């Protein structure tokens, strides 16, 4: 009777201790022998747009964008009378101030990451003036 009580208490505790020790050994091995799996931080490769380049981008108002248009930068609706900016190429619309702030740091659309083409800012040879 005494032996069966001892075995009933000792064996589960011994089994859990072995499982815990194996877990700790695997954890130690992983921490000391496996390569670090963190992704390197990508540096900001491109500077933003200048004020002159921002002035060349098309401006519009909320009326022309359509109903229910939401600025993806500030997550607020673009009201009918508010100035807005449409990105050439992808046609995503944003508040004028939000778009200019974003583009002064990063020359790509905040929604689709489409980069603004440098050709857009060059003077065209076929200018009617």
What does this structure look like?
It comes from Lactuca saligna. InterPro entries: Znf_RING, Znf_RING/FYVE/PHD. It is found in: Membrane. With 129 residues, the chain is mainly alpha-helical. The protein folds into two domains: 1-36; 51-121, Zinc/RING finger domain, C3HC4 (zinc finger) (Herpes Virus-1, 2-Layer Sandwich). It has four helices and three strands; from the N terminus they run H-H-E-H-E-E-H. The protein has a three-stranded antiparallel β-sheet. Strand 2 (83-86) and strand 3 (93-95) form a beta hairpin.
In DSSP terms, counting alpha (H) and pi (I) runs of 4 or more, how many helices?
4
- In the CATH hierarchy, the third-tier topology of the largest domain is known as Herpes Virus-1
| Helix fraction bin | 25-40%
The count of strands amounts to: 3
Instruction: Report the span from N to C terminus.
Output: 108 Å
The H/E string reads: HHEHEEH
CATH superfamily of the largest domain: Zinc/RING finger domain, C3HC4 (zinc finger)
Helix/sheet category: mainly alpha
């Amino acid at each position: 009777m005494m032996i069966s009580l001892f075995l009933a208490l000792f064996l589960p505790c011994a089994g859990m201790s072995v499982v815990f020790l194996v877990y700790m050994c695997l954890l130690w091995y992983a921490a000391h022998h496996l390569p670090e799996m963190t992704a390197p931080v990508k540096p900001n490769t491109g500077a933003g747009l200048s004020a002159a380049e921002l002035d060349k981008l098309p401006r519009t108002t909320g009326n022309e964008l359509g109903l229910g248009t939401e600025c993806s930068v500030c997550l607020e609706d673009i009201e009918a009378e508010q100035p807005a900016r449409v990105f050439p190429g992808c046609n995503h619309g944003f508040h004028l101030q939000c778009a200019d702030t974003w583009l002064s740091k990063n020359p790509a659309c905040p929604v689709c990451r489409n980069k603004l083409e440098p050709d857009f800012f060059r003077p065209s040879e076929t200018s009617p003036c």
